[in-house]
Amino acid sequence: MVVSVLVGLGYLTTVPAPQSVAALMPGWLVWLWACTLLGSGLLGLAGCLWWGRTTAGLGLERAALAAQSGALLMIAGATLHAWLIGWTATFPLLGLAFLSAWLVANLWRIFQIRNELRPGGDG
After folding, report:
1. Closest to 1 (Cα-Cα) out of 55, 54, 68, 51
2. What are the b/e assignments for 89-119, b being 16+ CB within 10 Å?
3. 25-60: b or e for each residue (b if 16 or more CB lie within 10 Å)?
């Protein structure tokens, strides 16, 4: 969640490097990615630090992870599209691997929370 906040703030407060996929995309899309990453990171941190009912905190975390997964899919899709049309960056496949690993981790955690919150779950 902290990484999501930092990446979101980075996209919102800096100009993308000329060789980055963000420099190739429309400004509104970069803004959407950044706001989604920042918002989902903050919401997820709130869920992790929730002092009230555990189910409410886990629900916040799950919602944040779902939103974050959507943003990661947008970024990965844009990166893959740019790479397929001939974008030359230093490590586009490494970026895709990182985004994919982050996405899989989010989806795995969503699955864990779903199992924890369902009636008769582990929790």
Report:
1. 68
2. beebeebbeebeebbeebeebbeebeeeeee
3. beeeebebbbebbbbbbebbbebeebeeeeeebbeb
Q: What is the pTM of this model?
A: 0.84
* Per-residue pLDDT of the chain in tens (123 residues, 90 and over written 9): 899 999 899 888 987 776 677 777 888 888 998 999 999 999 999 999 988 888 999 999 999 999 999 999 988 888 888 878 877 666 677 888 899 999 999 999 999 999 998 886 555
